Amino acid sequence: MRKVLAVTGIRSEYDILYPILKEFEKQGFEVCVAVCNAHLSDAQNNTYKKIEKDGFRIADKIDCLLSTDRLTQRSKGVGLLIAGLTQTAEREKPDFLLVVGDREESIATCVVGNYMDILTIHLGGGDPVYGNSDDPIRFACSKLAHIHCATADEYAKNLLKIGEDNWRILNSGNPSYVNIANIPQKTREELSGFLNFDIVSKDYITLLKHPLSSEVEESGEQMRLAIQSCTEFAQTHNLQVVGIYPNTDPGSYKIIEEIKKGEELYPNLKFFKTLPREVFINIIRNTLTLAGNSSMGILEAPFYKLPVVNIGNRQKGRLNAGNVEFVDYNKSHIIQALQKACFNQNYRAKIQELKNPYGDETSCKKIVDFIKQIDTQDRRWYVKTKLC
Amino acid sequence: MRKVLAVTGIRSEYDILYPILKEFEKQGFEVCVAVCNAHLSDAQNNTYKKIEKDGFRIADKIDCLLSTDRLTQRSKGVGLLIAGLTQTAEREKPDFLLVVGDREESIATCVVGNYMDILTIHLGGGDPVYGNSDDPIRFACSKLAHIHCATADEYAKNLLKIGEDNWRILNSGNPSYVNIANIPQKTREELSGFLNFDIVSKDYITLLKHPLSSEVEESGEQMRLAIQSCTEFAQTHNLQVVGIYPNTDPGSYKIIEEIKKGEELYPNLKFFKTLPREVFINIIRNTLTLAGNSSMGILEAPFYKLPVVNIGNRQKGRLNAGNVEFVDYNKSHIIQALQKACFNQNYRAKIQELKNPYGDETSCKKIVDFIKQIDTQDRRWYVKTKLC
Amino acid sequence: MRKVLAVTGIRSEYDILYPILKEFEKQGFEVCVAVCNAHLSDAQNNTYKKIEKDGFRIADKIDCLLSTDRLTQRSKGVGLLIAGLTQTAEREKPDFLLVVGDREESIATCVVGNYMDILTIHLGGGDPVYGNSDDPIRFACSKLAHIHCATADEYAKNLLKIGEDNWRILNSGNPSYVNIANIPQKTREELSGFLNFDIVSKDYITLLKHPLSSEVEESGEQMRLAIQSCTEFAQTHNLQVVGIYPNTDPGSYKIIEEIKKGEELYPNLKFFKTLPREVFINIIRNTLTLAGNSSMGILEAPFYKLPVVNIGNRQKGRLNAGNVEFVDYNKSHIIQALQKACFNQNYRAKIQELKNPYGDETSCKKIVDFIKQIDTQDRRWYVKTKLC
Amino acid sequence: MRKVLAVTGIRSEYDILYPILKEFEKQGFEVCVAVCNAHLSDAQNNTYKKIEKDGFRIADKIDCLLSTDRLTQRSKGVGLLIAGLTQTAEREKPDFLLVVGDREESIATCVVGNYMDILTIHLGGGDPVYGNSDDPIRFACSKLAHIHCATADEYAKNLLKIGEDNWRILNSGNPSYVNIANIPQKTREELSGFLNFDIVSKDYITLLKHPLSSEVEESGEQMRLAIQSCTEFAQTHNLQVVGIYPNTDPGSYKIIEEIKKGEELYPNLKFFKTLPREVFINIIRNTLTLAGNSSMGILEAPFYKLPVVNIGNRQKGRLNAGNVEFVDYNKSHIIQALQKACFNQNYRAKIQELKNPYGDETSCKKIVDFIKQIDTQDRRWYVKTKLC
Asked: Pfam families annotated for this entry (chains A, B, C, D) (predicted)?
């Protein structure tokens, strides 16, 4: 029986790992998880407990999130994680290490896999985002990892460009779709009851906006404009606006202030903190459009065939499935884009027909099928003979 | 005054850094050095003391070399170094981090530079060596570093291939040549006296062979064949053989056993442990050829216009300036190659004319001139907007 | 010039170090500070900035506070601190390490001093508090430290009991009194204005109560009772109640809930979050009594000649200067004790005459005078020849 | 089933743990071992493999031995061990941590036990040795550990003196005797054959001398004198001298040089590097006396009823069972003491009657019987209410 040791540091990334790990178990792999970073923080609700409840064996809890906002936090954190994970990896002797993305746990896992001679599977390589310290990390991970699962064909091609061997790369698509597909349908009546907000007699749009690290100062004002634009548009068309709270990155305090002011000013606006996943998914299923700047609009909305209005620079440059309108912070532009997203029937019909570049709900199976056929005795998987 | 914090873990890499740091000081930079890894080990002669004697300020001594031969050594070692270096980098607030190559200190420095937002200069990127865990590290460093000094034009091009911005790359050539050029000449009489071995009345060839991590088991037998071939060839032509002990990598014990046997069997053979640099350089200046598998044969011999016989797989695939014959472990092939290297006057004349792809003794000046013109306030140096 | 490296992790402990460090500087020592733990946390207001403003050189910032409430936090934190502080101590080569109390930084500093062969001064040994994991740490520090500054004669005697050499022990008394003595007087009018609460026309009592780790569950109810008792007593005598928020230990949330309820119920009660030190000290100078369970009541109130009502188990067993009444959670007992503290003129007169076992404002001078006469070349200071 | 997690860093200390762990298993405890430090070093023969062969589950391998002779080695090493062991302890959730002595693993384990709230058993407390950095560590461990197993009644009393609760202390005696008792007898003919040295026709004395950290410079000269004295005495009485190589502490190089010279000079002298335990034990069983300064002479020789000549300061001040003569570095004094040890029949008879203060082969059973009756739910074991 082959063993996979997955490494995860935060809820969002675990949501992607979860269906893959379940598929690994289904296909007879032994699975265990090293949890670290934000999962172990009270401030982040100790999300490691969810992983335990999901039935995975916790190989180790590796504390590496330092309580500071200085730049040392992530730098020293990577060091602590590498030191701790080395201990775990030697004891567990997994056949595969598995990690996602561009964060501290990604680079730490790839470094450990490289030196400990354990095949390392990296999910999400070749996806160029620009503007923060995560981006080069993602590409450094690709140079270190032995096996690449890319979420789009274009990203797989980027991995070829930077010199990775073709046979190490799988275009698996986005593994989180199977999660979404598995969530049971809820009626609008149920949702309305849960939210205590009428989205039965009226249609609604959804607003979800995070701060951007290079525009922290402007985040409050930007949110005010976004709220104004959405509520005005909604009033014109007798719609409701369902808002979702931002993540906890710097700038979020200012956004929350604007949320509170907005809720007092506009009766057609209501914001929600953390919604159970099955509620959130059903809100997205039923909304006319998603406005804001969530990565969901890029990566998951195509799966729902949902038109998206992306406001500002966040997500700019990522692969657009054809469902996203990018607009700047200008009220009339935003309203125009909302108009198109909600009521332009040609556009909406075209989105129904889009071919999702991020794959479909078969990603997890593709990944495990690919890994299964790997001969872990074959040294060519461990030693790269092509690097550029 | 701008400040450079160099990070070094071992003598060989410090030899490359030394002339660059001297040039930085000459051009008005403040220089300090974080020493780590083998420099701090008694088993490696505490080479950090040499750095102190050279007059550089030691910013911190960061212990990270664990006393074990298990794979955990390098993996956990990187973690410890990142943790320690983060502390140093925050205190020193250098304008630039400077590191060489493909070892633990290379990746640790690039990770710290990335998260601590300090411009990181990486020397030696784009040079594809294959067969061990260092190779992917070198390329991961290139994805993280902000400024690249490549030692050959072909290597600079490899950096472009993997998606680095053109304006971040300098083809500086090999910085160690200035070291070599500065070593005073010694006569063969002086060398002979120092070695207590006659290389005045007779010409000599030099043998320097290290183990290869993927061929550890064969290292003894391979050395035996190399010694046999060299001494037989030498006897035929009335030459001496000057041997140098290998590095301490796994397999070296078996090599040393063969050295001891060889010295008893062959009167024209004598091996030396560690030679002072000024002796070693002058031995190379006067030898007919260098046999074995040292990286010197590839990277430095072109500077001496010296023919080289590279035996076995180590160094295979690196850029050949035209002075290297690659042969396998076959006595007649080795002897043939030695014959050509020592006595084929056409071949030797052509080597005198070679254009060295690894540059010349101006590398250090090129590097410092390049760094000097960088505006450290300009954020485009810090944030990569091209990654593939 | 001799050098002292002080190690500090939190504001409260730095308040004790500050006047000692100033005295060291005054007497010609070089002083530097390694800051760690809560000082570096945003959640704790980055108090390291205050140390910088006070003009001390920061030797290193050593992140060791992990963002988790699991028990691993303090355990792994000590490990990180030892690793980081070793690096600092080797570079700085201080003549003395200086640390206070019973926390992670205390044990880490004493371990580093022991192995790095640096004379270690420990403040606050021999003071037995019971009930949490800090207590054995304090006594382990005493076995490791080379020089002991005890805050009371009884505590100095405890150090003798556990086998420490007499000549290593100074009964310095509590060093924080010099801080208090230096704070300028403020009139009650000024205080009243600052607090926006009338303490001019009416006398007042002060309430400051922290949670206790072994009674976390009861902390809310205990606070409710304390508030009830104080406000009832105050109403009877036409007094005001000035409350201070608790520290952030587990149980504090429940206390804060009761504070909020109390402020709505009782008009003669007002609570304050963090008061500037000069305001706080002057409130204490003018209050009739201090109720609650702050260590201030034990350690500092004797200096003010202030009667204290200590409610519950916290502080029980510490040396009572004669100014503290211990009562349990029983309203009539509390009110009785408040009555005695505020209005029993015999008792209050006796407190004015108390001999403070915790010393006076000469502590810092005593400490530096003691250290000054130590011959750091004399090996008997480094090697203990009496351990029990 | 209750679980014990033992922590061990070096062969000598594991020899003490081994019979205790076997007894724990016999009495139904689950046992696992965290190995660290020298056990994981190639230079120390990777002794962790012996632990695996002995059938114990390795909970984790925790690298913490840094490859340097600077003082940072042990200081930073403790930090790394605490960090790694915290991870192990949280995962394993043992009922008891178990550790021996006065080394890095002792203090690291006691710190982890204290903060992680795991009952910590410390073996060997209250035994005052003087002269190096280990000694205060031993006593700091006693202040932190929850349960003490002392190897002599006098040591148990020392623990009372430093304020430990009576009911936490067991005078178990030395656990290693059961090891010795279990080693099968070998005839002198067998030994002679193994050593290739005649100890059949002649009686012999045994010499085992280590360096002392405070007398490193003198270690060569001291060894020369010891060898001279032993061989002269042996010649006079027609005896042989069986020598054992020293440990690897600083000073050992000089000792080894004298060993080599001595073996050339004296035909009745032969030294041995590492002897299998069953050979070594039988040599001790048959020798006339043990000369030198091994702790064996103090702690184990009483079990053999063996007279010992302790030369120099090492071991001075430890409890003498009546079998040890302490002499200084003076040839006639040494020879006199050897004379008494080998041939004074009154003295030898008295030693046969000695009451061993270090107990007997029942120590392991005593320890496990004591631990077994502990109610791990009873919080008084975890929280010390007596500290001085």
From this structure: Epimerase_2
Judge whether C130 lies within some domain: yes
C-alpha A149/C-alpha A223 separation (Å) is 35
Strand pairing of A290-292 and A204-208?
parallel
Q: Which of A65, A68, A80 lies nearest to residue C40, judging by beta carbons?
A: A68
Confidence of residue A253 (pLDDT cuts 50, 70, 90): confident
Q: Which of B248, B247, B231 is nearest to B239 (CA)?
A: B231
- ipTM value, please give it: 0.91
Given an 8 Å threshold on Cβ–Cβ distance, is C80 in contact with B84? Answer: no
Q: Touching check for B58 and chain D: CB below 8 Å?
A: no
- Give the one of A82, A131, A161 whose C-beta lies nearest to B82's C-beta: A82
For residue C69, name the pLDDT band (cuts at 50, 70, 90): confident
Q: What is the pLDDT of residues B144-189, one digit of tens each?
A: 999 999 999 999 999 999 999 999 999 999 999 988 999 999 999 9
Cβ of residue C60 closer than 8 Å to a chain B Cβ: yes
- Catalogue the E-assigned strands of C37-158: 57-62, 96-100, 119-123, 147-150
C162 and C204, same structural domain? no
Residue of chain B nearest D46, judged by CA positions: B68
Q: Identify the CA nearest to C278 among candidates C207, C191, C201.
A: C191
Residue C140 pLDDT greater than 80, yes or no: yes
Q: Which residues of chain A neighbour B97 with C-beta distances below 8 Å?
A: none
> Which H or E element spans position B7?
strand B3-8
C-alpha span between B349 and A343 (Å, rounded): 80
CB-based contact C80 B83, cutoff 8 Å: yes
Q: Which member of C40, C65, C70 has the closest CB to residue A40?
A: C70
Q: Do residues C155 and C272 share a domain?
A: no
Domain co-membership, A191 together with A150? no
pLDDT tens figures, B95-106: 999 999 999 999
Which run of H or E residues covers position B253?
helix B252-265
Contact at CB, A68 and C68, closer than 8 angstroms: no
Distance, in Å, from the CA atom of B113 to the CA atom of B142, rounded to the nearest integer, reads 12
DSSP letters spanning B35-64:
EEGGGG-GGGTTTHHHHHHTT-EEEEEE--
- Non-local (6+) Cβ contacts of C275 within 8 A are C244, C283
Yes or no: say if A10 and A44 are a contact pair by the CB < 8 Å rule: yes
**Number of domains within chain B:** 2
- Backbone torsions φ then ψ of B100, nearest 5 degrees: -115, 145
D141 belongs to a structural domain: yes
B1 contact A CB<8A:
no
Residues A79-103: what's their mean pLDDT? 97
B169-171 and B204-208: which strand pairing?
A: unpaired
Round to whole Å and give the CA distance between C173 and C155. Answer: 10
Cα C254 from chain centroid?
A: 23
Q: Highest-confidence range of A245-259, B48-62, B202-216, by mean pLDDT?
A: B48-62
Question: In this prediction, what percent of chain C has a pLDDT beyond 70?
Answer: 100
- CA–CA distance, C240 with C233 (Å, rounded to integer): 10
Q: Is residue C53 part of a domain?
A: yes
Same structural domain for residues B218 and B116?
no
Q: What is the pLDDT of residues A60-77, one digit of tens each?
A: 999 999 998 889 999 999
Structural domain range at position D309: 186-352
Give C32→chain A minimum CA distance, Å. Answer: 21
Average pLDDT of chain C is 95
Q: Chain A contacts of B136, Cβ < 8 Å? A: 114, 143-144, 384, 387
Using CB atoms, list chains with 3+ pairs below 8 Å to chain A. B, C, D
Low-confidence ranges of chain D (pLDDT < 50): none
CATH number at residue C38: 3.40.50.2000
pLDDT of B310 reads 97
| pLDDT for res A215 | 83
